[in-house]
Amino acid sequence: MSALLLNLDFAACPPKKSLEGNAKHRNFVKKRRFLEQRGFLNKKNQRPNKVPKPHSEPTKKGETPRVDGPGKTHPPPGQKTAASSNGSEQALDRKAAVSWLTPAPSKKTDSVVGKVDLLGEFQSALPKIKSPPARSQKKAPQKRPPQKSATQNATQVPSEGVCSRAAQKPGKMVALDCEMVGTGPKGHVSSLARCSIVNYDGDVLYDEYVLPPCPIVDYRTRWSGIRKHHMLKATPFKTARNQILKLLAGKVVVGHAIHNDFKALQYFHPKPLTRDTSQIPLLNRKAGCPENATMSLKTLTKKLLGQDIQAGKSGHSSVEDAQATMELYKVVEVEWEQHLAQNPPKN
How far apart are CA 41 and CA 32, in angstroms? Predict the structure, then answer.
């Protein structure tokens, strides 16, 4: 039986090339080919005749694959011999051991489903790459409301702001009035002889007689109310001036024709912090007087407050005049402060 199989195998094989070498080598090659055909040996050192294609078509039913491994060629599929059947069985066993070498048969290799399956397998085999973190979208800048111009702000001053500003002033507001006597040649120089300061409510903060640095020529008692005995215990001018300036520092000073008082004090107060009731057209209008005229403190107090001041022959009282001046300021306080906010005075 073995001899028969041997004859069949040699008959099925293609004509062999002439062997070169001596008889011993020919016998060795003959036996090796016999063992290789029987499947007991593999051709390790011989180079493969055909390199398998990466995308080979699946085998059909009843056919054996043409190439199982490198350098192994099978007979045509139409010839069925015992040797080929034994070789195919051994090849199938080796395929079962390494199934990934041969692609699985598919009836619909050209269909869309088959392509999608192959694509899914290919993508699943790829290494997973972490996607970069999504960039946070920048927030759109919020549009700011259009800013009003300085002229619009000046023309639209809220009354609440004026009231709140006026409410904060009482603690920093004082009224000042001074009485002067005549010094120098013929008593034509006005020198400070009394100074009175009251707060927003009319309370007296300072009231002192002041001794001028020069001899008094005219006491002007009819208007100043100063007499000789008032100067016996009077405060020296320099001392009184320092005390007065400490009280006026940083405060809004109200007065009537106050530039005369500052001149007697030899002092200049910031104009934005000065309120002169003799220079307010609104006050004259409310009193029914010409707006451009300079009205006396006695006239304005009589018409607007209904009070009589500077009456009698005893002269004026600086405390009374300072209190009357503060009350006149309160009559036009809101309108006056609003006007000054729109037209701030310059020094």
Answer: 8
Any domain includes 117: no
Residue-wise pLDDT tens digits, 1-21: 444 444 444 444 454 444 455
231-254 pLDDT, tens digit per residue, is 999 999 999 999 999 999 999 999
Q: Which residues pair with 236 in a beta bridge?
A: 211
Instruction: Tell me if 93 is assigned to some domain.
Output: no
Q: How far apart are the first and last CA of the chain?
A: 138
CA 90 to chain centre: 79
* 275, part of any domain: yes
Q: Looking at residue 229, which CATH number applies to its domain?
A: 3.30.420.10
Residue with tokens 């069949």: 8
Helices (H), 147-212: 150-155, 159-168
pTM, to two decimals: 0.53
List, in sequence order, the alpha helices (H) in the chain: 2-12, 23-38, 82-97, 112-125, 150-155, 159-168, 221-224, 237-248, 258-265, 281-286, 297-300, 318-331, 333-342
SS3 316: coil
DSSP code of residue 289:
S
Model confidence at 275, in pLDDT bands (50, 70, 90)? Answer: very high
What local confidence, expressed as pLDDT, does residue 261 receive? 96
In a domain, 33, yes or no: no
Which residues lie below 8 Å from residue 12, measured CB to CB, with a gap of 6+? 75, 79, 81, 83, 84
Domain that holds residue 225: 170-342
Number of domains in the chain: 1
